[in-house]
Design a protein that fits this description.
The protein has helices at about 5, 55-80, 125-145, 160-170, 175-185, 185-195, 205-210, 250-260, 280-295, 300-305, 305-325, 340-355, 360-365; strands at about 15-20, 30-35, 40-50, 90, 100, 110-115, 120, 215-220, 230, 235-240, 245-250. By secondary structure, it is an alpha+beta fold. The mean pLDDT is about 95. It binds 2-acetamido-2-deoxy-1-O-phosphono-alpha-D-glucopyranose (GN1) and magnesium ion. Magnesium ion binds near residues 222, 242 and 245.
Length: about 375
């Protein structure tokens, strides 16, 4: 079914006037939809859920609905004392009251309220912006920290479990075509060597979880900088979006993902590796904003593993892009040949830069406590 037809199946007043594809996102198809009545206009986000990635879209929507309902209550309860208006997308019900609509091909679609007069950035450049990104993540984690993780379903088994990605990478390399891709590219062989050198490190967070030092909590799952919205008028953080990876996990996956995406001014899509690095001033500012909100619920052990999480998530994403390149681009959407290889080069270069700045980053984390 086309997007126009499905857009009319949600509880939004008025008539459809426009539907614009939004290219952001490596997984789902996303559109901005405009409905009008005589006196008003309603804009919302329409998304087709990628079933190759999300095998159980109903569970994804159940998680999203439960966590956003909880978060909206917390935002309202704290509104009077808050230094800003916090926003969070709302799941717009379909005509039949469900949180999604299914088209004739069996594809699942959802509608979400739009965070208006706010925007996100591909990368950030000023420490002020980094503080705000940290505040947004810390605030979101804080207001969902009292939601029982056990009430959420595991909608993406293995998500952010780095040893599992390593095992998948090894399995991909069993394939003749993948080995050919590796043999034909000196750059791919260089990345493979980089990965080999970090096999032991890959389980740093999962080992801590197993030892009982860390616990599963509800997490966002994908708080990269492009999912953090700043208010157009005040410049302050106002919302976090892209909530389909909300599930039980380690808050470290979120912190690591936010930091690796926020503190590399070149962004994820650059082709110039010489521009890729972990900017320590941005990191310091991000930590300042994050801990302002997150200190309230983080344990000593949580704090101890924050540095490792940044190094690990950059490594993990590099590994995921690299394995997908070798597998023939089956997971992440690509725009050009070698796109996933290039994305992998960027994340692994960032990982290297994080390793080189370990002592400075640890000091920033200590000083901001
Ligand atoms: C994917 O779809 P998008 O762009 O929000 C991926 C994340 C990666 C991100 C890298 C479900 O997110 O884990 O960090 O690309 N989402 C999933 O840009 O795999
Ligand atoms: Mg996402």
């Amino acid at each position: 079914m086309n997007a126009e037809k499905i857009a009319t199946r949600f509880q939004v007043p008025g008539r459809l006037v426009a539907l614009q594809p939004i290219s952001a996102g490596n997984v789902n198809d996303t559109y901005r939809v405009i409905f009008r009545t005589t006196f008003s206009e309603e804009q919302f986000i329409l998304q087709r859920i990628n079933k190759t990635v999300f095998k159980d879209p109903v569970a994804v929507m159940a998680n999203m609905k439960a966590v956003t309902d909880h978060a909206h209550c917390r935002i309202e309860a704290e509104a009077e004392d808050a230094d800003r208006i916090w926003q969070l997308p709302r799941v717009i019900p379909a005509d039949d009251g469900r949180d999604y609509a299914i088209d004739e091909q069996g594809e699942y679609w959802r509608a979400l309220s739009l965070i208006a007069s706010a925007r996100s950035y591909e990368s950030l450049n000023t420490p002020e912006h980094a503080v705000e990104a940290g505040v947004v993540l810390g605030h979101f984690q804080r207001i969902i920290s009292d939601f029982p993780a056990g009430d959420l379903q595991d909608t993406l088994p293995g998500f952010h479990i780095t040893p599992t990605y390593l095992a998948q990478y090894d399995a991909v390399l069993e394939n003749a075509e993948a080995r050919q891709r590796l043999d034909h590219s000196a750059e791919a062989r260089r990345l493979a060597k980089f990965v080999e050198g970090r096999r032991e490190f890959a389980s740093v967070l999962e080992d801590a979880l197993e030892r009982g030092e860390l616990q599963l909590r509800p997490i966002h799952g994908d708080p990269k900088i492009t999912n953090i919205m700043l208010d157009n008028f005040t410049g302050k953080g106002t919302s976090i979006v892209d909530l389909d990876t909300v599930k039980p996990g380690l808050i470290h996956y979120d912190f690591g993902d936010c930091a690796r995406s926020s503190c590399n001014p070149a962004g994820e899509e650059t082709t110039d590796l010489s521009e890729v690095f972990l900017d320590i001033d941005l990191f310091d500012a991000l930590v300042k904003g994050y801990l302002r909100e997150a200190k309230a619920f983080l344990t000593e052990a949580d704090l101890h593993y924050l540095f490792d999480s940044v190094r690990l998530i950059a490594f993990e994403l590099g590994l995921r892009f690299f394995a997908d390149y070798l597998a023939g681009d089956v997971y992440f959407k690509v725009n050009y040949d070698g796109h996933n290889l290039n994305r992998a080069r960027v994340q692994l270069a960032l990982c290297e830069s994080i390793e080189a700045r370990e002592s400075k980053m640890r000091r920033a984390l200590e000083d901001r406590r």
